[in-house]
Design goal:
Length: 513
């Protein structure tokens, strides 16, 4: 029996009565589903969607259709089945269980004190990551812990040189509770890529952006569209807004920095300046109308260090509600990465791409190696010897059910800046998604999403990377809660009424068409 979906979850969240890969302890494991129950899942998918085969590749359920044309559209197919993220592929494709390639040499031993810090399906501590970066993989650009694998991201070389290097690398770390893999260059969809290149323009668009100017007539909210402007006050890039945060009297709106990357290079130190002429390019406008910018909602003040998060100063008179109307849930507090578990589930609510479900999959540690000036010719600076490598950034990796999160260019761009609201907590497995979402725990802010891949057969193409709020939490920032805003009362009801009115308007327009 299929369980009806909860309000606030995508229509394609598919659950079965008494069948789930998630056990009573909240953990995902194949042993939680018997062969007979697996057959029940397959029979249902075959009858409803014409599926020809399914396979388990934790935390994914890989679903195969005979032909590419048989795969249902994204808004018509399950994104989550019996607790697993659903991946849709063409029959005959082999879905790789692990990211990257394995080394060809024997296993290596490391310091036993470091091994004792490791636990199965737990993100390793910083000192273990730095140990590997300084003593084992001394030229790695990032170390990514993904589910039950550690991926060493090496400097990109051609395929022949990469294969030659694999022959010299160890295939395992003795007694480590994870597999060891290697990747040629940075993983897809990582921050480095969108800073370096423009995404290719998609041929077709399966998702249309929502360009409504909500700030003009009512409070706008997390996931609403904003646009950055160029010096001629034309639309430059799109992004989503996150949430309003405060630290004492200081109040800021979070969004995505990528909209201003170019201007930061062209106009150094422009952000935070009071000169109106210089602040033109740091202006955010809400919802373009007829290709023109909407109402001005704020100015970019600063890029939060080590992240893709921009902090905006709201214009006077702009109303913002820290609630998710499509999820019927508030935004109450920021949660640190240490308080999140692999397997936790999240909802991403963006006006540009709609509701999306994601699962905590891992953490990517970006490694930097500062260049040390010699204190004398031919000598090293002793201050550089203790830490040759540092962790310059820490990004959350979240698994989604689509390698093509949204193929319309402005949709891909616009989803950047949206935040992830926790909807499932493996440490409190008895709570329903609605109960978890009412806690209002905002976990991370999405970085830029390329999303140009479709029906790829490897896990890395199904990941979205996001910035944790750890640094902001440590500095005293949290989600702004005005005294008059009772989130379970009038404010949430008002936003819900507005969302229902918008939906009624869209249905009327569709009927007229």
């Amino acid at each position: 029996m299929v369980i009806p979906r909860e309000r606030g979850l995508p229509t394609v969240d598919l659950k079965f009565d008494g069948i789930s890969f998630i056990g009573p302890d909240g953990r995902i494991d194949a042993s939680n589903v018997s062969p007979a129950q697996m057959n029940v899942i397959f029979t249902y998918l075959k009858h409803e969607y014409g599926v020809v085969n399914i396979s388990y590749s934790e935390p994914f359920l890989v679903i195969f259709c005979a032909l590419k044309m048989d795969i249902p559209n994204e808004n018509e197919r399950p994104t989550c089945v019996a607790g697993l993220i659903a991946i849709w592929c063409v029959a005959g494709q082999k879905f790789e269980q692990y990211i990257g390639a394995s080394g060809r040499q024997g296993e290596i031993r490391i310091d036993q004190r470091m091994l004792k810090k490791l636990q199965k399906r737990k993100v390793p501590p910083d000192d273990f990551i730095l140990y590997l970066a300084n003593r084992v993989f001394i030229d790695c650009e990032a170390l990514s812990f993904m589910w039950e694998s550690l991926i060493v991201e090496l400097p990109r070389v051609n395929a022949r040189k990469f294969q030659a290097r694999l022959r010299r690398l160890p295939h395992n770390i003795k007694d480590a509770p994870f597999t060891l893999r290697y990747y040629n260059g940075p993983l897809p969809n990582t921050m480095r890529r969108y800073d370096a290149t423009e995404p290719p323009v998609a041929v077709a668009a399966s998702v249309a952006p929502n360009d409504t100017d909500k700030a003009r007539v009512k409070p706008f909210h997390p996931g609403s569209l904003i646009t950055s402007l160029d010096m001629e006050r034309r639309i430059h890039k799109c992004a989503s807004v996150g949430i309003v945060v405060n630290r004492g009297p200081e109040k800021r709106l979070t969004s995505s920095w990528h909209s201003w990357t170019e201007y930061n290079s062209d106009f150094p130190r422009i952000f935070g300046w009071l000169d109106p002429q210089r602040r033109i390019v740091s202006r955010d406008s809400q919802g373009p109308a007829n290709g023109k910018p909407g109402i001005a909602v704020g100015m970019v003040w600063v890029r939060y260090r080590g992240t893709n998060t921009a902090l905006l100063d709201l214009e006077n008179g702009i109303r913002f509600a820290n609630v998710f109307p499509n999820l019927n849930a508030p935004a109450r507090t920021l949660i640190a990465s240490k308080d999140q578990e692999l397997g936790d589930t999240y909802m991403l609510d963006s006006n540009h791409a709609g509701l999306r479900q994601a699962m905590g999959y891992g953490t990517r540690f970006v490694i930097a190696r500062p260049v040390c000036e010699p204190v004398a010719p031919g000598t090293l600076n002793p201050m550089c010897l203790s830490h040759l490598a540092i962790i310059s950034a820490r990004h959350g990796a979240f698994a989604t059910g689509s390698s093509r999160l949204a193929c319309h260019p402005s949709v891909r761009e616009g989803i950047s800046g949206a935040v992830l609201l926790r909807s499932g907590d493996v440490t409190r497995s008895t709570q329903t998604p609605s109960q978890v979402m009412q806690r209002g725990e905002v976990a991370a802010q999405v970085q830029y999403v390329h999303g140009q891949y479709k029906y790829r057969a490897s896990p890395e193409y199904y990941l979205v990377f996001a910035d944790f709020f750890d640094g902001m939490i440590q500095e005293g920032w949290d989600i702004f809660q005005p005294q008059e805003q009772v989130l379970s009362g009038w404010m949430l009801d008002e936003v819900n009424r507005e969302a229902e009115a918008d939906q009624d308007t869209e249905m009327t327009e569709d009927a007229e068409e």
